[in-house]
Every structure is written in structure tokens, then in C-alpha cells.
């Protein structure tokens, strides 16, 4: 017997390079997973008896959204720097003057675990309200062994307390902390010798990330981080080519990385390397918008090389204070000229792959988790079309529906 039967929905699926809604259909759930899918006309009450019945009323059914790149756990905000930038300072200038990531590090270090949990939970609930059922959360505002682990513990706890799946990424190589000022290599020693092995030992990290940039870490330093990740048996991803071309995409591809993220300054060699390695390109239009960037990521080349593109909020206080993934879909279309279908695949199928979860998440298929969203819209393109508001009508995590 099924635990849940969702009836009278139009299931959205990729067909060619488009996303199409099916004829009225049903979907059955057993043990949190999708057990059967069929057309309403074939629904047989005796075969498909279910403990719970949910009428979808003709709404669209998509996989639950996956936000595959966030810095959700932090304290404070950076509204003051927003103001400074509007008076002419650049993101890099603020970072070099000790602001930027470091100002959030100071507040995050001062916050205890409970305060950090409460601040992050608020943002998490907003993500959930917009259809997110799986979220990746990076550390990177602790920048010491204790504070990085604290942030990862908070991320894990969020996943235990809320009906959402959390995947954690250790981003200790996000910035050089003040106590290592001018000694980036010594800080990388600390990251590779202590922080990565300890995060692994405590089971707190599912992946390792770094910020490869002139104001972050060099390709050589990034390589050391990746070697340590590999030694710990953890997959890698990278903040690459955001502000300049450091050839980070090719580097992360060389390590078989899950994803390269941002990518405004990506070149064709990097794209070819990603295509070969199966590394996902994660598009972060919120940061592009917020920094008023003008260099567009090479979407057309990525398409031509058939690199899967994901779309994410990059939720963080400095460059993308955003918890609205459908808005990022809209921006991926308006700013990057992705199609609505690409944007939808970017927050479902390809976002799952960016987290290494493609076998169990990201599409509506028998055997996969019943992580699903019901939408009060007529056609799939509407999901990327609206700038504000939310047509979300239902959200299921592992087959259980939770209030929005
Ligand atoms: O993804 N690029 C580096 N990291 C973040 C920004 C962090 C911050 O400014 O606090 C990003 O854009
Ligand atoms: Fe980021």
C-alpha cells in the first residue's frame, strides 16, 4: 500500500531542450520514495490504494528545488558595505581594506552556536517557502578550526531540525583570516593539515570548496586544498573565474570536481575541461546582479560543449543576500539569457549533479526521493517568469507535505 497518492497533477519533465507538462497524472509514494507514476486515466483505486490522498487540482508538479551553492550560515549583515559601494567603493577595495568577508568572519566568530542557528534558520525557512527541498551550505565565515567546525555543526543541525536535506561544504579557503595576515601559505598549511582532516574525521563535510581569485587564493594554493580533499576522500568544487580568469575551472575539472561556480571570466579551454570531467557550471546571477557585474558568463559556449548548468542563490551577506531561488531562475534568464527550461533544470536535475546526488534527487523518477513541489501555474516557463511572489502550492520532503 502507498503512503501517499498525489493525484491530478501535470508532471514537468525535460523533453529535448524544453520542459513540458504531462497530461493529468498521479504519483504514488512509499517509504519516502517515488513508487509509481501514471496517467489519471490509468489510475486504478484497488491497485493504488493509499494511506493519504492529495488532490493536486491540476497544478504542475516538479522535483523539489535544489539550492546547490549557499553560504547560509553567518551572523550579521553587510548593508553598510552596500552603502559604501553605492558611494563608489568596489567589492575588491572593501575586501582589501579589511571589510568584505572578514567583517562577516568577525561577527560569525562572536556568535555562539545557538545565535548562529537562529539567524540561519530564518533564511532556511525562506528558502523552503520558495520550494527548496535540498540545500548545500558552505562554511567559510569561521576561518579557524573551531569556528569552521562550529558553522558546519550548525548546518548539520539545520538539516536535522527542518524538513530539508542539507549537504555541507567546507570552505575554509574562503579568505585569509586576520591572524594569518600576509601569510596565506601558512593559513593553507592550517587548512590542509588540520581543518580538512578534522572536518572529515567528524563527518561534518560532504565536499571541499575554495575561493580561487586575486583576492582569494592562488591556483597553487587551491591545488594544495584539493590534494588534501582527495587524501580525505572528499569531492571538490570551486569558486572560479568570478572576478578574473585564474583558470580555476580547468583546475577543479582536473580533480574530477562536482562543480565550478560563478564563471563570468571562464574561457573555452576551461569549458572543454569541464565538459570532459562532467563538472557542472553553477550560475549565480544574484552575485552578478548585486555586484553590478558586466562580464557575462559564456552561456552559449557552455551550451555548445554540453556542460550542464545549475542555478543557485549563492545566499551570502556580501554579494547575494537572497533566499529566493525562483528569482534566481528569472535572473538567469533576464541577465544571462538562459531559457526558462534551462533555469528549471538548473535548480533540479543539474543542481543535483552539482552535489553528486543525481542518482537519488533532481528528477521525478520511480526510486528517487519524493522531494516534490506543486505549483499554481499553467506552464513550466511561468516558474522563471515571475520576478516576485511565489506560486508554490505544496512542498514535499521525502514524501511528507509540510506547511509553507
Ligand atoms: O560566492 N566569492 C566569494 N564568496 C562569496 C562572497 C562572500 C562574501 O562577500 O561574503 C560569493 O560571492
Ligand atoms: Fe559563493
Automatic annotation (TrEMBL):
Localization of this protein: Cytoplasm
Organism: Piscinibacter terrae
Pathway field: Amino-acid degradation; L-histidine degradation into L-glutamate; N-formimidoyl-L-glutamate from L-histidine: step 3/3
SUPFAM superfamilies in UniProt: Composite domain of metallo-dependent hydrolases (SSF51338), Metallo-dependent hydrolases (SSF51556)
Molecular functions per Gene Ontology: imidazolonepropionase activity; iron ion binding; zinc ion binding
Cofactor(s) it depends on: Zn(2+); Fe(3+)
Protein residues bound to Zn(2+): 69, 71, 239, 314
Role of this protein: Catalyzes the hydrolytic cleavage of the carbon-nitrogen bond in imidazolone-5-propanoate to yield N-formimidoyl-L-glutamate. It is the third step in the universal histidine degradation pathway.
Entry EC no(s): 3.5.2.7
Cofactor mode of binding and number, as noted: Binds 1 zinc or iron ion per subunit.
Any one GO biological process: L-histidine catabolic process to glutamate and formate
Binding positions (N-formimidoyl-L-glutamate): 141, 316, 318
Amidohydrolase-related domain location: 61-379
Keywords, sorted A to Z: Cytoplasm, Histidine metabolism, Hydrolase, Iron, Metal-binding, Zinc
CC per GO annotation: cytoplasm
PANTHER family: IMIDAZOLONEPROPIONASE, IMIDAZOLONEPROPIONASE-RELATED
Gene: hutI
Record-listed 4-imidazolone-5-propanoate binding positions: 78, 141, 174, 242, 319
Binding-site positions, Fe(3+): 69, 71, 239, 314
Reactions it catalyzes: 4-imidazolone-5-propanoate + H2O = N-formimidoyl-L-glutamate
Family under the similarity heading: Belongs to the metallo-dependent hydrolases superfamily. HutI family.
One Pfam family it belongs to: Amidohydro_1
Protein name, per record: Imidazolonepropionase
